[in-house]
User: Fold these one by one.
Assistant:
Number 1:
Amino acid sequence: MNLRTFAMIGSAAISVAVLAGVASGRASAVSTSLPPISAGRVILDYQPHHTQARALTAGSTSVKRFTRTVTDGSTTFHVTMVGKNPFVVQTAPSTTVKTFLVPVKIILPNGDTFDPTATTSCDTQASALTRTVQSPVVASRAYSVGGTALGTGQYTDIFRRAEFFTQTSPTGINPGYHVRLNTVTLPVRTVRVPRSAAAEFTTTTACGEKTGAMDINFWDNLVTGTLLPSLRAQGVTETTLPIFELRGVVMFDGTPSSCCILGYHAFAATAAGKQTYATAEYESSGRFAGVNDVSSLSHEVAEWQDDPFGNNPTKPWGHIGQVAGCQNNLEVGDPLSGTNIPTATNGHTFHPQELAFFSWFYHSKPSLGVNGLFSNNGTFTAAAPACT
């Protein structure tokens, strides 16, 4: 089974990925009114089965981006990435994308509530929302790899600088290159999940909390049909990135046995263009191996940054990270899903995910990345092997 695919569903392109993980916890009573979930694998960038008609034709307006032609052996690819082209001298090489962090309080039909703006027994000091704002995905700090300074910035900004370091280094053509998120937090949205789209784990977490679940198809139709349109009055447009944050709630695909989806990035067509967006769960349950706090968020933002519309092709690669088979796309989180880089900001240690460089996918010789590496913590020291 190919665990990652790309498709045009209605007028949204969404990618699919699976990261192996095992659910765990101690027994706890669950309302019999909701279907139970006992275990599941972590799934990122899943593809909702859109049921909502999207009649609007996509225009050209979207997030700031550039297109580049890449030659890999005898094959030529055309890729689109967020930001300005680092391979062309830029008078002002820095890009800032207005980003809206939207906390979503989920209420299940049995009354169980999951609110990212509230503290929990798993973290009594700060809410998931507060932790996210404090995290390296939002907050800036200095980074280095192997003794080489990469500059000061947010985690995914520095990832971009690192993967194109031949251009962004102090001796490169664009030393001031950045792709920054200017993050604004919006008021919490409350969503009541219908019984037909709700489920709940049969165990509590190690600190005694429940974990809810909802159908991703219900959720994504709500995002594209209701939430995104309602946010336009607060400044969300095609040139911005809205990120919906969940806490203690994962998603399943159609049936609770197809669990668990912790995040994805996508775009929806509008009359003006393409609205990119993402959903990510702040993970504190301990249920899923290799995923903690902002692991999912860093994965989704980095993949949005390097593959905003989910259509950047590559030669086949796979049998690594969360990919059991072969896939052929520039999704920089997948090859190293489950491999995190403990990173301290604001007095707390977070766990953003390690990410694969552009050169890993397109077999650059030598790598365009810092110190000739192929990932931002040096796990990859050579390009992707061929996948058959």
Number 2:
Amino acid sequence: MTTSRRDLLYAGGVAAGAVGLGAWLSGRSRRPEDSAPPVVKRDLRVARDLRLPELAVIEGGEPAELVRRAIEELGGMGRFVARGDVVLVKPNMAWDRTPEQAANTNPDAVAEVVRLALAAGARKVLVTDVPVNETRRVFERSGIARAAMAAGGQVVLPEAARFREVDLGGAVLRVWPVLDPFLEADKVINLPVAKHHDLTGATLGFKNWYGMLGGLRMRLHQRIHESLADLAAFLRPTLTVVDAYRVLMRNGPSGGSTEDVALRKTVIAGTDPVAVDAYAARAFWGLDAGSLRYLELAAERGLGELHLAESHQVHRFLALR
């Protein structure tokens, strides 16, 4: 049965900024105990395999083949997706930009992850984000909705009714509205694009988690490093795949000028989200661990290894042998 793009993209919904206006940080008063939202932590990692690298860097190909090779080096999608799983793919789909402007994840990279997950036996593959700009226009202009559906994925609009208030249990982040696929999927694949960010130096896998939240997310910038570490503790993904085919080197995160974009033809994938972000930040912007306070905080909490990129567990390859 075929569902039209119009059905998927225009079935209603509101922009993220209108959702969950009652969100608050930990310093605000709590609700009465009998109505307090549940504390939720999601750990969707797969078992570590010492025979395989935890980080794979693939260079020199087109987006789909880069993604395919990176996941092969980590053991193949069958390591991460079991038959019957509901898989959620989280690209960066925040901005009203074209693929050439590199403010969103490359649509061909998203499509390949969808195809691989379905081939591994996923019952369905959902693709979603909570954009900064107007939702329907972002989903269309980014090219991601079209590519994801063509590959067999289902695009989820961030409608108001799909947010649930939960207690993230963080040091800074407590009760916030979270889009329900992030609370229900069996596996979550984080698929950010590598971009410059004026507050954190770079926006990669950790910053991509902002796109699961409703509410007034700009408030999180007041303590951005702590909030990013809280989100990483709340949702530990099955796999992180950083699209660095085109990298927005300056004027991120929204970009706009193709003069700020570098064609790097790279994908960085791994099972350790701290290591993935650390590697990408150093590779493209020369940022060391001391420049990335949110990664230091995450490593201190045991969420990953900052210096994995320097170990034997990193495999670098050309996409074409």
Number 3:
Amino acid sequence: MPNPISSLDPIWLERAAAYQARLTMPAGALGRLLEIGRQLCAIQETLKPCTDPAAVLVMAADHGIADEGVSAYPQEVTGQMVANFLHGGAAINVLARRQQAFVIVVDMGMKTALAAPPTASASRFVSQAIARGTANFVTEPAMTSTQALQAQDVGRRVVAEQLAGQGVRVVALGEMGIGNTTSASAIAAALTGLPAAAVTGRGTGLDDAGLRHKIAIIDRALARHFPNRHGPVEAAEVLAAVGGFEIAGLVGAAREAASRRMLIVLDGFISSVAGLLAARLEPAVRDYFIASHRSVELGHRVVLEVLDLVPLVDLGLRLGEGSGAVLTLNIIHSAADILRDMATFASAGVTGLPE
């Protein structure tokens, strides 16, 4: 049985705030660093939180909806990019090295399995494909309900076996999958009750005609799967109908990470949609989220608003992979460092600060 997820204890948030008030600075002077610090204190139930080690969990899968021409890139790119992750040449590798975070890449259902993953990989690789890509959700459900549960279970097991055993305190969620912004947009529309046009962006760089086509495809899929939709739809139903194996894996990973009291750093649109699904299935998981950045994808802003999360940065990113989440690890580490290492007025012998 999965561990239960506990909402954060407000007493720990109050203790952290009281301790921060004794640190050698004017009240609230470090802004959101203090907010993150309080969240970390409540998650770890200590006034001296630790954020090392940190990990990046990148889940990869292909999508049958790509057959509808909704991406500027062919599906083969998914496997090629995963190979790049394993050789250490992708943006996520470069950024993770700077932050001293290790990368785990999981094949949740790529169209083509890697023939021979490198023996000396720059990233850990886990092969747990549910199937070789989802079905085309314009014509049939993307996956069965059983497959959706299996993918979530893979996410849980990866966190339990690959992260918890390493003492990971902070996990950044990333993804790779051609067609996954179409899946994420369909999920966002179904979960919020909004029209597809309100949550659909250009993904890998579609032109205006491509964007219109993408929206039309999502509208067709929503009409097929939810013909009587007049508002939000149940999360489990949405995930099976229009989801992706990597998205389902991230849902399971988020729920397991929260149950193990890890801080969960959401990346862009796709990982935030996975976060929204997880929160709909188990609301307490929301307490463990930090939104790293605001993507240029139209639907990302909507999803963050629904989750009531304010992103740490807005850098115009739209890469995925966990890149934005990893960029903000330094901010998160610093929030914990302040609590552990900064002197109090009493310990520093400071009797007051100037007005």
